[in-house]
Amino acid sequence: MSVKRVYQAVFSVFLVGFFLTTRQTAFAFDVTATLNNQQVVIGDLSYSVGLSGANSGQETGTFLLKQKYNYLMDDKMGCQFRWFQIIIQDDCPATYKGNPLSVAVDPPSGGWDYQKPNGGADTSPYYENDDNGKYAYPNYAQRHDKNYNGGPGFLGKSWTDDYPGICNGKNVKTTWQTYLVFTGPKIKNEFDILFGYQWTVGRDNNGNPVFNSFDNNGQGIDPTKQIDVTQTPPVNYLTEALNNSGFAGWKWAFGKDLALYCPAASTPELSTNLTLALTLLGVALWHKRNKQSSVTKS
């Protein structure tokens, strides 16, 4: 939802052309979390950063749970994997309540000023809106699998994308940090950060669009930067961004047990329950068979 967003309706029109013209780099990583006092790999996250044209960047992220942890994505219980995105530097900042913000949650509470004519945005800090389709960008329901019910076809998947406009001029850039977070009803107005990556789009010294980081001479260097969430804090912008954007009452955390946020996260793994049930059933059948055999022999 950055400054000159190419909205989803417009994006769908040039979707075919996008795939033919985009330049990007892609990465994939394991996602580790604390679950019931154990460190486990709960899934994997892949993301890509690139250009979708001369005036627009593009970023996508997809998180996929391991099958045995699918129960962690449970709308009925309020267990949610959300995306939290902040801008940490901007040479052409958007305004919020009349003030240009170079460090901000994207989008801020209620939306950027340029979003207001179209309804603005919601008042939670997540990149997806909490609404029934009122705003231009998709809501949470449109950015993850159907509500968890244990049935076939549920993948435990959540995804995000951004198509920001690129600043005009030379040697200019905008840099974001995008985080996968977990939240639930047991702790209000707080989320636990599981994984993060940093990305940049801008223009080099000749005014050509680029999608990586820059050195002091305006030359592109590192395409993206994974944020090490094992360090506390890994960055200095999270609280500043929340305070600047109307979310002063919100808190972030790293490495908390997911069970602290959501009741369903305290549930034993489904595979463990199934194994236990089959074991007990086997013991019961063995005992019944032996009892019947003893009666026959007597």
Descriptive notes:
- The protein is of the alpha+beta class.
- The chain has two domains: 8-267, no CATH class; 269-298.
- Helix content is 16%, strand content 32%.
- It has four helices and 13 strands.
- The protein has helices spanning 8-13, 15-21, 238-244, 270-297, and strands at residues 23-35, 38-51, 57-65, 80-90, 95-96, 99-100, 104-105, 157-162, 172-183, 190-203, 209-210, 224-227, 251-254.
- Strands 4, 7, 9, 10, 11, 12 and 13 form a seven-stranded mixed sheet that branches. It has a four-stranded antiparallel sheet with strand order 1-2-3-8, with no helix packed on it. A two-stranded antiparallel sheet has the order 5-6.
- The longest helix has 28 residues, at 270-297.
- The chain starts with 7 loop residues before the first helix and ends with a helix.
- 38% of the residues are buried.
- The model is unreliable at 2-22 and 270-279 (pLDDT under 50).
